[in-house]
Design brief:
By secondary structure, this protein is α/β, with parallel strands linked by helices. About 45% of the residues lie in helices and about 10% in strands. The longest helix is centred in the N-terminal third of the chain and has 27 residues.
Length: about 525
Protein backbone atom coordinates (compact mmCIF):
# COMPACT_ATOMS: atom_id res chain seq x y z
CA UNK A 1 0.00 0.00 0.00
CA UNK A 2 1.31 3.43 -0.95
CA UNK A 3 2.14 5.62 2.03
CA UNK A 4 1.74 9.34 1.62
CA UNK A 5 0.80 12.27 3.84
CA UNK A 6 -0.34 15.76 3.04
CA UNK A 7 -0.25 18.39 5.79
CA UNK A 8 -1.30 22.01 5.92
CA UNK A 9 0.61 23.81 8.66
CA UNK A 10 -0.44 27.33 9.61
CA UNK A 11 2.17 29.36 11.45
CA UNK A 12 0.34 31.78 13.74
CA UNK A 13 2.41 34.56 15.25
CA UNK A 14 1.97 38.13 16.40
CA UNK A 15 4.63 40.31 18.03
CA UNK A 16 3.98 41.55 21.53
CA UNK A 17 1.73 44.59 21.08
CA UNK A 18 -0.19 44.61 24.38
CA UNK A 19 -0.14 48.15 25.81
CA UNK A 20 2.48 49.09 23.22
CA UNK A 21 0.68 51.38 20.78
CA UNK A 22 -2.73 51.17 19.16
CA UNK A 23 -3.43 52.70 15.73
CA UNK A 24 -2.19 52.47 13.04
CA UNK A 25 0.35 50.05 14.51
CA UNK A 26 0.24 48.28 17.83
CA UNK A 27 -2.76 46.57 19.39
CA UNK A 28 -4.74 47.14 16.18
CA UNK A 29 -2.67 44.39 14.55
CA UNK A 30 -3.74 41.65 16.91
CA UNK A 31 -7.34 42.89 17.10
CA UNK A 32 -7.73 42.76 13.31
CA UNK A 33 -6.07 39.35 13.05
CA UNK A 34 -8.19 38.08 15.95
CA UNK A 35 -11.41 39.06 14.16
CA UNK A 36 -10.48 38.22 10.58
CA UNK A 37 -8.18 35.22 11.02
CA UNK A 38 -8.12 33.54 14.43
CA UNK A 39 -11.86 33.30 15.12
CA UNK A 40 -12.67 31.97 11.60
CA UNK A 41 -9.84 29.42 11.82
CA UNK A 42 -10.89 28.37 15.32
CA UNK A 43 -14.40 27.76 13.94
CA UNK A 44 -12.96 25.57 11.18
CA UNK A 45 -11.07 23.55 13.79
CA UNK A 46 -14.30 23.21 15.75
CA UNK A 47 -16.11 21.91 12.66
CA UNK A 48 -13.35 19.35 12.14
CA UNK A 49 -13.45 18.30 15.80
CA UNK A 50 -17.22 17.78 15.57
CA UNK A 51 -16.93 15.74 12.35
CA UNK A 52 -18.57 18.36 10.14
CA UNK A 53 -15.38 18.84 8.11
CA UNK A 54 -12.86 16.29 6.95
CA UNK A 55 -9.12 16.28 7.37
CA UNK A 56 -6.58 17.32 9.93
CA UNK A 57 -4.57 20.45 10.49
CA UNK A 58 -1.31 21.53 12.10
CA UNK A 59 -0.90 24.93 13.72
CA UNK A 60 2.00 26.79 15.25
CA UNK A 61 0.97 28.90 18.21
CA UNK A 62 3.91 31.07 19.18
CA UNK A 63 4.07 31.52 22.96
CA UNK A 64 3.95 35.30 22.76
CA UNK A 65 0.71 35.09 20.75
CA UNK A 66 -0.80 32.51 23.11
CA UNK A 67 -0.04 34.78 26.07
CA UNK A 68 -1.83 37.70 24.39
CA UNK A 69 -4.89 35.71 23.30
CA UNK A 70 -5.45 34.63 26.91
CA UNK A 71 -4.74 38.06 28.40
CA UNK A 72 -7.77 39.54 30.24
CA UNK A 73 -7.00 43.12 29.20
CA UNK A 74 -6.71 42.22 25.50
CA UNK A 75 -9.88 40.13 25.62
CA UNK A 76 -11.75 43.20 26.90
CA UNK A 77 -10.09 45.32 24.21
CA UNK A 78 -11.15 42.82 21.57
CA UNK A 79 -14.79 42.79 22.65
CA UNK A 80 -14.79 46.61 22.62
CA UNK A 81 -13.13 46.58 19.19
CA UNK A 82 -15.85 44.31 17.76
CA UNK A 83 -18.62 46.45 19.23
CA UNK A 84 -17.05 49.62 17.85
CA UNK A 85 -16.51 48.14 14.39
CA UNK A 86 -20.10 46.89 14.34
CA UNK A 87 -21.31 50.40 15.19
CA UNK A 88 -19.12 51.87 12.45
CA UNK A 89 -20.43 49.38 9.89
CA UNK A 90 -24.02 50.19 10.82
CA UNK A 91 -23.28 53.90 10.40
CA UNK A 92 -21.69 53.14 7.04
CA UNK A 93 -24.88 51.44 5.86
CA UNK A 94 -26.84 54.65 6.46
CA UNK A 95 -24.15 56.96 5.10
CA UNK A 96 -23.61 55.06 1.88
CA UNK A 97 -27.32 54.57 1.27
CA UNK A 98 -27.80 58.33 1.57
CA UNK A 99 -25.18 58.77 -1.13
CA UNK A 100 -26.91 56.30 -3.42
CA UNK A 101 -24.05 53.82 -3.03
CA UNK A 102 -26.22 50.72 -2.78
CA UNK A 103 -23.42 48.28 -3.60
CA UNK A 104 -21.15 49.52 -0.86
CA UNK A 105 -24.08 49.86 1.52
CA UNK A 106 -24.86 46.15 1.08
CA UNK A 107 -21.23 45.31 1.84
CA UNK A 108 -21.31 47.46 4.97
CA UNK A 109 -24.46 45.63 6.05
CA UNK A 110 -22.68 42.31 5.48
CA UNK A 111 -19.75 43.48 7.61
CA UNK A 112 -22.12 44.59 10.38
CA UNK A 113 -23.75 41.13 10.46
CA UNK A 114 -20.38 39.40 10.48
CA UNK A 115 -19.13 41.55 13.33
CA UNK A 116 -22.29 40.81 15.30
CA UNK A 117 -21.68 37.10 14.74
CA UNK A 118 -18.06 37.37 15.89
CA UNK A 119 -19.11 39.22 19.03
CA UNK A 120 -21.65 36.49 19.81
CA UNK A 121 -19.00 33.81 19.25
CA UNK A 122 -16.59 35.55 21.60
CA UNK A 123 -19.15 36.00 24.35
CA UNK A 124 -21.01 32.69 24.08
CA UNK A 125 -18.45 30.18 22.82
CA UNK A 126 -15.06 31.42 23.98
CA UNK A 127 -15.87 32.51 27.49
CA UNK A 128 -13.43 29.92 28.80
CA UNK A 129 -10.57 31.32 26.73
CA UNK A 130 -9.40 31.41 23.13
CA UNK A 131 -7.14 28.38 23.48
CA UNK A 132 -9.93 26.09 24.66
CA UNK A 133 -11.07 25.52 21.06
CA UNK A 134 -7.57 24.38 20.14
CA UNK A 135 -7.46 22.01 23.10
CA UNK A 136 -10.75 20.48 21.92
CA UNK A 137 -9.31 20.03 18.44
CA UNK A 138 -6.25 18.32 19.88
CA UNK A 139 -8.40 16.02 22.02
CA UNK A 140 -10.44 15.06 18.94
CA UNK A 141 -7.23 14.18 17.06
CA UNK A 142 -7.82 16.65 14.22
CA UNK A 143 -5.34 19.31 15.33
CA UNK A 144 -1.67 19.29 16.18
CA UNK A 145 -0.12 22.37 17.78
CA UNK A 146 3.59 22.99 17.36
CA UNK A 147 5.66 24.91 19.87
CA UNK A 148 8.08 27.68 19.00
CA UNK A 149 10.55 29.90 20.79
CA UNK A 150 9.17 32.23 23.45
CA UNK A 151 9.07 35.46 21.45
CA UNK A 152 9.83 34.18 17.94
CA UNK A 153 13.52 34.93 18.33
CA UNK A 154 15.85 34.35 15.39
CA UNK A 155 17.81 31.69 17.25
CA UNK A 156 21.04 31.54 15.20
CA UNK A 157 21.55 35.29 15.59
CA UNK A 158 21.43 35.28 19.39
CA UNK A 159 24.79 35.60 21.11
CA UNK A 160 24.85 32.56 23.39
CA UNK A 161 23.51 29.02 23.58
CA UNK A 162 22.04 29.76 27.01
CA UNK A 163 19.80 32.43 25.45
CA UNK A 164 18.78 30.12 22.62
CA UNK A 165 18.00 27.32 25.06
CA UNK A 166 15.99 29.66 27.29
CA UNK A 167 13.90 30.79 24.32
CA UNK A 168 13.20 27.14 23.41
CA UNK A 169 12.52 25.91 26.94
CA UNK A 170 10.22 28.82 27.81
CA UNK A 171 8.39 28.15 24.57
CA UNK A 172 7.92 24.47 25.45
CA UNK A 173 6.71 25.33 28.95
CA UNK A 174 4.20 27.82 27.58
CA UNK A 175 2.88 25.14 25.23
CA UNK A 176 2.47 22.69 28.12
CA UNK A 177 0.64 25.26 30.22
CA UNK A 178 -1.59 26.29 27.32
CA UNK A 179 -2.53 22.82 26.07
CA UNK A 180 -1.79 20.41 28.91
CA UNK A 181 0.63 18.25 26.96
CA UNK A 182 4.17 18.12 25.64
CA UNK A 183 4.57 19.32 22.05
CA UNK A 184 6.27 16.96 19.60
CA UNK A 185 6.91 19.54 16.86
CA UNK A 186 8.89 22.76 16.98
CA UNK A 187 8.70 25.66 14.55
CA UNK A 188 12.13 27.23 14.14
CA UNK A 189 11.34 30.95 13.87
CA UNK A 190 11.76 32.14 10.29
CA UNK A 191 12.70 28.48 9.54
CA UNK A 192 16.23 29.66 10.37
CA UNK A 193 18.86 27.05 11.14
CA UNK A 194 22.61 26.55 11.32
CA UNK A 195 24.39 23.48 12.74
CA UNK A 196 25.22 25.47 15.91
CA UNK A 197 21.58 24.87 16.95
CA UNK A 198 22.06 21.10 17.10
CA UNK A 199 23.27 20.88 20.67
CA UNK A 200 20.54 23.24 21.87
CA UNK A 201 17.70 21.44 20.09
CA UNK A 202 19.06 18.04 21.01
CA UNK A 203 18.58 18.84 24.70
CA UNK A 204 14.81 18.93 24.17
CA UNK A 205 14.33 15.64 22.37
CA UNK A 206 12.26 14.09 23.85
CA UNK A 207 9.65 15.48 23.95
CA UNK A 208 10.41 17.08 20.60
CA UNK A 209 10.41 14.76 17.59
CA UNK A 210 10.64 17.09 14.60
CA UNK A 211 11.26 20.60 13.27
CA UNK A 212 10.28 22.35 10.04
CA UNK A 213 12.76 23.74 7.51
CA UNK A 214 12.33 25.75 4.33
CA UNK A 215 12.29 24.05 0.93
CA UNK A 216 15.59 25.79 0.15
CA UNK A 217 17.40 24.03 3.04
CA UNK A 218 19.06 21.34 0.87
CA UNK A 219 20.74 24.05 -1.23
CA UNK A 220 23.48 24.55 1.40
CA UNK A 221 23.66 20.95 2.66
CA UNK A 222 26.36 18.42 1.77
CA UNK A 223 23.64 15.89 0.89
CA UNK A 224 20.87 17.16 -1.37
CA UNK A 225 17.49 15.65 -0.55
CA UNK A 226 14.00 16.09 -2.04
CA UNK A 227 11.65 18.15 0.07
CA UNK A 228 9.09 15.34 0.34
CA UNK A 229 11.51 12.98 2.09
CA UNK A 230 11.74 13.10 5.89
CA UNK A 231 15.32 13.41 7.12
CA UNK A 232 17.28 13.66 10.34
CA UNK A 233 18.38 17.13 11.38
CA UNK A 234 22.16 17.34 11.56
CA UNK A 235 23.58 15.86 14.75
CA UNK A 236 20.24 15.75 16.57
CA UNK A 237 17.75 12.91 17.09
CA UNK A 238 15.07 15.12 15.51
CA UNK A 239 13.35 14.53 12.21
CA UNK A 240 13.08 17.45 9.80
CA UNK A 241 10.18 18.07 7.45
CA UNK A 242 10.65 20.54 4.61
CA UNK A 243 8.09 22.95 3.24
CA UNK A 244 6.83 21.89 -0.18
CA UNK A 245 7.88 24.28 -2.93
CA UNK A 246 4.87 23.75 -5.22
CA UNK A 247 2.34 24.43 -2.47
CA UNK A 248 4.37 27.52 -1.57
CA UNK A 249 4.31 28.84 -5.14
CA UNK A 250 0.60 28.24 -5.66
CA UNK A 251 -0.38 30.33 -2.66
CA UNK A 252 2.50 32.50 -1.53
CA UNK A 253 4.03 33.89 -4.72
CA UNK A 254 2.87 37.30 -6.06
CA UNK A 255 0.78 35.58 -8.76
CA UNK A 256 -0.63 32.96 -6.37
CA UNK A 257 -4.30 32.40 -5.61
CA UNK A 258 -4.74 35.42 -3.28
CA UNK A 259 -3.88 37.72 -6.23
CA UNK A 260 -6.92 36.68 -8.29
CA UNK A 261 -9.15 39.54 -9.32
CA UNK A 262 -12.33 38.36 -7.59
CA UNK A 263 -10.81 38.55 -4.12
CA UNK A 264 -11.15 41.57 -1.89
CA UNK A 265 -8.46 44.22 -2.16
CA UNK A 266 -6.66 44.51 1.18
CA UNK A 267 -4.89 47.82 0.69
CA UNK A 268 -7.71 50.08 -0.51
CA UNK A 269 -9.97 51.32 2.28
CA UNK A 270 -12.61 54.00 2.46
CA UNK A 271 -10.57 56.60 4.27
CA UNK A 272 -13.43 59.10 4.15
CA UNK A 273 -15.55 56.66 6.11
CA UNK A 274 -14.35 54.19 8.72
CA UNK A 275 -11.71 52.34 6.75
CA UNK A 276 -13.76 49.42 5.47
CA UNK A 277 -12.68 47.57 2.32
CA UNK A 278 -15.28 47.65 -0.44
CA UNK A 279 -13.26 46.79 -3.52
CA UNK A 280 -11.90 43.72 -5.26
CA UNK A 281 -8.39 43.24 -6.58
CA UNK A 282 -9.74 43.40 -10.17
CA UNK A 283 -6.15 43.17 -11.45
CA UNK A 284 -2.95 43.37 -9.36
CA UNK A 285 -1.55 45.92 -11.82
CA UNK A 286 -4.60 48.19 -11.68
CA UNK A 287 -4.22 51.46 -9.72
CA UNK A 288 -6.18 51.55 -6.47
CA UNK A 289 -8.50 54.30 -7.74
CA UNK A 290 -9.66 52.03 -10.58
CA UNK A 291 -10.58 48.97 -8.49
CA UNK A 292 -14.07 47.55 -8.97
CA UNK A 293 -16.63 46.78 -6.30
CA UNK A 294 -16.09 43.59 -4.32
CA UNK A 295 -18.58 40.74 -4.85
CA UNK A 296 -18.50 38.20 -1.98
CA UNK A 297 -20.31 35.50 -3.99
CA UNK A 298 -17.84 35.79 -6.86
CA UNK A 299 -14.97 35.55 -4.36
CA UNK A 300 -16.54 32.45 -2.80
CA UNK A 301 -16.85 30.79 -6.22
CA UNK A 302 -13.22 31.66 -7.03
CA UNK A 303 -12.07 30.21 -3.68
CA UNK A 304 -13.82 26.91 -4.48
CA UNK A 305 -12.26 26.81 -7.95
CA UNK A 306 -8.81 27.63 -6.56
CA UNK A 307 -9.19 24.89 -3.93
CA UNK A 308 -10.04 22.34 -6.62
CA UNK A 309 -7.03 23.46 -8.67
CA UNK A 310 -4.75 23.23 -5.64
CA UNK A 311 -5.98 19.72 -4.77
CA UNK A 312 -5.51 18.55 -8.35
CA UNK A 313 -1.96 19.94 -8.52
CA UNK A 314 -1.00 18.35 -5.21
CA UNK A 315 -2.37 14.96 -6.24
CA UNK A 316 -0.49 15.23 -9.50
CA UNK A 317 2.66 16.02 -7.54
CA UNK A 318 2.11 12.95 -5.36
CA UNK A 319 1.97 10.78 -8.43
CA UNK A 320 5.19 12.18 -9.90
CA UNK A 321 7.60 12.46 -6.99
CA UNK A 322 11.10 12.01 -8.43
CA UNK A 323 13.28 9.31 -6.89
CA UNK A 324 10.57 7.89 -4.68
CA UNK A 325 10.78 4.16 -4.03
CA UNK A 326 7.59 2.03 -4.06
CA UNK A 327 5.96 2.24 -0.64
CA UNK A 328 8.30 4.99 0.57
CA UNK A 329 6.60 7.60 2.72
CA UNK A 330 6.08 10.96 1.05
CA UNK A 331 5.36 14.01 3.19
CA UNK A 332 4.07 17.09 1.41
CA UNK A 333 4.06 19.94 3.90
CA UNK A 334 2.22 23.10 2.87
CA UNK A 335 3.20 25.78 5.40
CA UNK A 336 1.80 29.31 5.42
CA UNK A 337 1.42 32.23 7.80
CA UNK A 338 -1.96 31.79 9.46
CA UNK A 339 -2.65 35.51 9.23
CA UNK A 340 -2.92 35.21 5.45
CA UNK A 341 -6.20 33.36 5.87
CA UNK A 342 -9.01 35.83 6.46
CA UNK A 343 -6.87 38.85 7.31
CA UNK A 344 -4.86 39.46 4.14
CA UNK A 345 -6.88 37.02 2.02
CA UNK A 346 -10.50 37.41 3.07
CA UNK A 347 -11.63 34.27 1.22
CA UNK A 348 -8.69 32.25 2.58
CA UNK A 349 -10.77 30.38 5.21
CA UNK A 350 -13.24 29.38 2.47
CA UNK A 351 -10.37 28.06 0.35
CA UNK A 352 -9.01 26.19 3.35
CA UNK A 353 -12.37 24.58 4.13
CA UNK A 354 -12.71 23.40 0.53
CA UNK A 355 -9.17 21.99 0.47
CA UNK A 356 -9.83 20.10 3.72
CA UNK A 357 -13.00 18.59 2.23
CA UNK A 358 -11.31 17.54 -1.02
CA UNK A 359 -8.03 16.22 0.39
CA UNK A 360 -9.40 15.13 3.77
CA UNK A 361 -8.66 11.38 3.45
CA UNK A 362 -5.03 12.12 2.56
CA UNK A 363 -4.50 14.75 5.25
CA UNK A 364 -2.36 13.96 8.24
CA UNK A 365 -0.44 15.59 11.05
CA UNK A 366 3.37 15.79 10.95
CA UNK A 367 3.57 14.45 14.51
CA UNK A 368 1.76 11.31 13.42
CA UNK A 369 4.31 10.77 10.67
CA UNK A 370 7.23 11.55 12.99
CA UNK A 371 6.02 8.90 15.44
CA UNK A 372 6.53 6.21 12.77
CA UNK A 373 10.07 7.25 11.88
CA UNK A 374 13.36 5.88 13.20
CA UNK A 375 15.71 8.89 13.14
CA UNK A 376 18.83 6.75 12.89
CA UNK A 377 17.55 5.26 9.64
CA UNK A 378 16.84 8.63 8.00
CA UNK A 379 19.23 10.46 5.68
CA UNK A 380 20.96 13.35 7.44
CA UNK A 381 20.28 16.93 6.37
CA UNK A 382 22.66 19.52 7.78
CA UNK A 383 22.35 22.86 5.96
CA UNK A 384 25.15 25.33 6.52
CA UNK A 385 22.55 28.10 6.77
CA UNK A 386 18.90 28.30 5.82
CA UNK A 387 15.86 30.51 6.39
CA UNK A 388 12.42 31.27 4.95
CA UNK A 389 13.23 34.27 2.79
CA UNK A 390 14.39 35.14 -0.69
CA UNK A 391 17.94 33.79 -0.66
CA UNK A 392 18.12 31.61 2.45
CA UNK A 393 20.58 33.94 4.20
CA UNK A 394 19.97 35.92 7.36
CA UNK A 395 20.22 39.27 5.54
CA UNK A 396 16.55 39.99 6.14
CA UNK A 397 17.29 40.27 9.87
CA UNK A 398 20.96 41.23 10.19
CA UNK A 399 22.32 43.84 7.83
CA UNK A 400 23.84 47.31 7.87
CA UNK A 401 20.48 48.86 8.72
CA UNK A 402 19.87 46.61 11.73
CA UNK A 403 23.40 46.25 13.08
CA UNK A 404 22.69 48.56 15.99
CA UNK A 405 19.69 46.40 17.00
CA UNK A 406 21.84 43.31 17.20
CA UNK A 407 24.66 45.08 19.05
CA UNK A 408 22.20 46.16 21.76
CA UNK A 409 20.56 42.73 21.87
CA UNK A 410 23.82 40.83 22.28
CA UNK A 411 25.17 43.29 24.82
CA UNK A 412 21.95 42.92 26.81
CA UNK A 413 22.23 39.13 26.66
CA UNK A 414 25.76 39.23 28.00
CA UNK A 415 24.80 41.60 30.82
CA UNK A 416 21.79 39.52 31.79
CA UNK A 417 23.58 36.16 31.79
CA UNK A 418 26.30 37.63 34.02
CA UNK A 419 23.68 38.23 36.75
CA UNK A 420 21.84 34.91 36.56
CA UNK A 421 23.91 33.19 39.23
CA UNK A 422 24.12 33.81 42.95
CA UNK A 423 21.61 34.81 45.60
CA UNK A 424 19.37 37.90 45.68
CA UNK A 425 16.45 39.16 47.71
CA UNK A 426 12.83 39.04 46.53
CA UNK A 427 12.76 42.58 45.13
CA UNK A 428 15.99 42.08 43.19
CA UNK A 429 14.67 38.78 41.83
CA UNK A 430 11.57 40.56 40.53
CA UNK A 431 13.74 43.19 38.84
CA UNK A 432 15.95 40.55 37.23
CA UNK A 433 12.92 38.57 36.04
CA UNK A 434 11.44 41.69 34.45
CA UNK A 435 14.80 42.30 32.80
CA UNK A 436 14.48 38.75 31.47
CA UNK A 437 11.04 39.53 29.99
CA UNK A 438 12.39 42.65 28.35
CA UNK A 439 15.33 40.66 26.99
CA UNK A 440 13.00 38.05 25.51
CA UNK A 441 11.06 40.86 23.81
CA UNK A 442 14.29 42.46 22.57
CA UNK A 443 15.25 39.13 20.99
CA UNK A 444 12.05 38.90 18.88
CA UNK A 445 12.82 38.66 15.18
CA UNK A 446 9.98 41.07 14.36
CA UNK A 447 11.84 44.32 15.00
CA UNK A 448 14.77 43.71 12.67
CA UNK A 449 12.45 42.23 10.05
CA UNK A 450 10.20 45.29 10.06
CA UNK A 451 13.17 47.63 9.83
CA UNK A 452 14.63 45.74 6.88
CA UNK A 453 11.31 45.44 5.03
CA UNK A 454 10.40 49.04 5.93
CA UNK A 455 7.03 47.86 7.27
CA UNK A 456 6.28 50.10 10.24
CA UNK A 457 10.04 50.54 10.64
CA UNK A 458 9.69 53.60 12.89
CA UNK A 459 7.34 51.71 15.21
CA UNK A 460 9.75 48.74 15.28
CA UNK A 461 12.65 50.98 16.28
CA UNK A 462 10.56 52.72 18.94
CA UNK A 463 9.46 49.39 20.37
CA UNK A 464 12.98 48.03 20.42
CA UNK A 465 14.31 51.18 22.08
CA UNK A 466 11.53 51.05 24.70
CA UNK A 467 12.29 47.45 25.66
CA UNK A 468 16.02 48.21 25.72
CA UNK A 469 15.42 51.15 28.07
CA UNK A 470 13.21 49.05 30.37
CA UNK A 471 15.85 46.34 30.38
CA UNK A 472 18.55 48.82 31.39
CA UNK A 473 16.29 50.30 34.07
CA UNK A 474 15.67 46.85 35.59
CA UNK A 475 19.36 45.98 35.52
CA UNK A 476 20.25 49.31 37.14
CA UNK A 477 17.91 48.47 40.01
CA UNK A 478 20.18 45.54 40.86
CA UNK A 479 22.90 48.07 41.64
CA UNK A 480 20.97 51.07 43.04
CA UNK A 481 18.00 49.37 44.68
CA UNK A 482 14.54 48.52 43.42
CA UNK A 483 12.08 51.27 42.55
CA UNK A 484 8.85 49.45 43.40
CA UNK A 485 6.57 51.88 41.55
CA UNK A 486 8.61 51.86 38.35
CA UNK A 487 9.02 48.09 38.45
CA UNK A 488 5.28 47.53 38.94
CA UNK A 489 4.54 49.72 35.91
CA UNK A 490 6.94 47.72 33.74
CA UNK A 491 5.49 44.45 35.03
CA UNK A 492 2.02 45.59 33.96
CA UNK A 493 3.13 46.94 30.58
CA UNK A 494 5.16 43.89 29.58
CA UNK A 495 3.61 40.97 31.42
CA UNK A 496 4.06 37.71 29.45
CA UNK A 497 5.10 34.48 31.16
CA UNK A 498 3.99 35.24 34.71
CA UNK A 499 5.58 31.95 35.77
CA UNK A 500 9.05 32.92 34.53
CA UNK A 501 12.07 31.79 36.54
CA UNK A 502 15.76 32.74 36.28
CA UNK A 503 16.58 29.05 36.12
CA UNK A 504 15.41 28.96 32.50
CA UNK A 505 18.68 30.73 31.72
CA UNK A 506 20.89 29.72 34.64
CA UNK A 507 20.71 25.96 34.14
CA UNK A 508 21.90 26.26 30.54
CA UNK A 509 24.97 28.26 31.49
CA UNK A 510 26.41 25.10 32.98
CA UNK A 511 25.31 22.62 30.31
CA UNK A 512 25.79 24.81 27.21
CA UNK A 513 28.94 26.79 27.95
CA UNK A 514 29.64 30.10 26.28
CA UNK A 515 29.08 29.49 22.54
CA UNK A 516 29.18 32.94 21.01
CA UNK A 517 27.36 34.05 17.84
CA UNK A 518 29.53 33.79 14.78
CA UNK A 519 32.01 31.26 16.18
Amino acid sequence: MERRAFTILLHSHMPYVRRNGDWPVGEQWILEAWAECYLPLWELIGEMAEGRRRGKLALTMTPILAEQLEDAYLRERFAAYLRNRRRQAEEEVVRLRSLGEEGRSRLASLYARELEGLLSLLEEKYGDGMLSALRRGMEAGVLEVLASSATHAHLPLLSADACRAAQVEIGLECCRRSFGRDPVGFWLPECSYTPQLDRVLGRFSPPLRYVVLDHTAPDTAPLSLPTWRACRLGGTPLAAFLRDELSHRLVWEPDGYPSHGEYREYVKRDYQGHGFQYWRITSPSLPLEDKELYDPEAARARARADAEHFAARMRERWDRLPGREPGEEAVLLAAYDAELFGHWWRAGPIWLREVRDILGPDCGRPGGVAATLEPDSLPVLSPARTAWNVDGTFNTWENQGTRDIWEVTRGSEEAFLSRCGGERDEAATRALLQAGRELLLLEASDWSYMVTRDTAAEYARERFAAHAERFRHCMAMLERGVDEEALALMEETDNPFSWLDIRYWARHLEHLPGHRQGE
